[in-house]
Amino acid sequence: MTRWETAEVLKSPMEICWQFAYEIDSDKLKALYSKAKKYQWDADADLDWSYAVDPSRPVMEDDAIGGVMRVPLVERLNKSQRETLLAHLAAHRLSQFLHGEQGALMTAAALTHAVPDYQGKLYAATQTMDEARHVEVYARYIQKLALVYPMGVALKKIIDQTLTANHWVKIAIGMNMIVEGLALASFHNMLQVTPCELLRQILRGVLRDESRHVAFGSLYVGDAIRAMHPDEREDVADFAFEIVSLMRRARKRGAEPDPGFLSVLDHSGIDQADFWKSVAESATSGQRFEPPRDQIHPFKHLMMPALVRVGAVTDRARERYKAEGIPVWEDRQALERFESGELS
Ligand SMILES: [Fe+2]
Ligand SMILES: [Fe+2]
């Protein structure tokens, strides 16, 4: 059965290529491919799906949500109202994981088509299988929560721009560095705050895979960018800047709220106007939410250091980040700990 009525079609301008030189000439990429084959896992065999998840109970503690649970109006809610809100926020967040993973599945497949090297194609095929498994596990888990929220407008726009980019390096930047930077941080932070054992098993498995995906970006994309003509490099740097600033703008205080988030409020019985009034009041009183110390910040710890490392932040791009008020963080410690699997 083809579900064309629910499918959405995009057109890609990307060139795809054959490669008939089958020598494996990158030891690092070969090692990553071997590791990927070795660490494949099966959602049927390796996870305990009999674990009962009560959809009316939150699957995360409220520290995970940060700002929303600290809004004065939310703090005044009774325990059961707060739990309802948290349950919907969790379903909303996990829905973003699910939709994002489908995007990752398609971008990984696009990389398999488009990378010019044989070993790059083999590796990208393993990432495609990883992402298929991630879509599967989140889809199955969300069925237990009984509610799927739509994909966030900004996330959809970012992944669409990545999928319809004209060069595989842009796809690897948009997905393996920027979107997966966000995903790694969210998965890691969710793992710190969920008491649900099944979700913890899922997150651990997914994080292990994701650490390889981030490592691929730095191993392979850096060489490709260094080999580019300077004009082409600037074009790639511009693409990275556009995606990063799109994501920053969407997450900024005062940004237009996502329709999915507004339906979370509706489903939780919270009046939208009252909620935003309370947000505005807490903002004017100077109250700020500080995330717990062990939380990973996607831009600071993952995305920006990864972009700098591969040469996707040129001198000209630095000026653009500066003008937009986006710091170019370069400290790679957290990124390298993820890549080594230490943080997952
Ligand atoms: Fe994934
Ligand atoms: Fe991934």
Give descriptors for this structure.
single chain; 344 residues; mainly alpha; globular; binds fe (ii) ion
Description:
It is a single chain. By secondary structure, the protein is mainly alpha-helical. The chain contains 14 helices and no strands. It has helices spanning 27-38, 43-46, 72-75, 79-114, 118-145, 153-163, 168-193, 197-226, 230-251, 259-267, 272-284, 298-310, 315-324, 333-339. One fe (ii) ion binds next to helix 4, helix 5 and helix 8.
Short description:
With 344 residues, the chain is mainly alpha-helical. It has helices at residues 27-38, 43-46, 72-75, 79-114, 118-145, 153-163, 168-193, 197-226, 230-251, 259-267, 272-284, 298-310, 315-324, 333-339. It contains 14 helices and no strands.
Give the SSE map.
Layout (H helix, E strand, L loop, with lengths): L26 H12 L4 H4 L25 H4 L3 H36 L3 H28 L7 H11 L4 H26 L3 H30 L3 H22 L7 H9 L4 H13 L13 H13 L4 H10 L8 H7 L5
Strand content: under 5%
Contiguous helical run count: 14
Q: Mind telling me the C-alpha Rg?
A: 20 Å
Give a short account of the largest sheet. none
Helix percentage: 55-70%
Order of helices and strands: HHHHHHHHHHHHHH
Question: What best-fitting shape do the alpha-carbon axes yield?
Answer: globular
Overall pLDDT confidence: 89
Low confidence ranges: none
| Distinct ligands, ions and cofactors found in the model | fe (ii) ion
State the total count of DSSP E strands: 0
Secondary-structure content class: mainly alpha
Terminal CA distance reads 38 Å
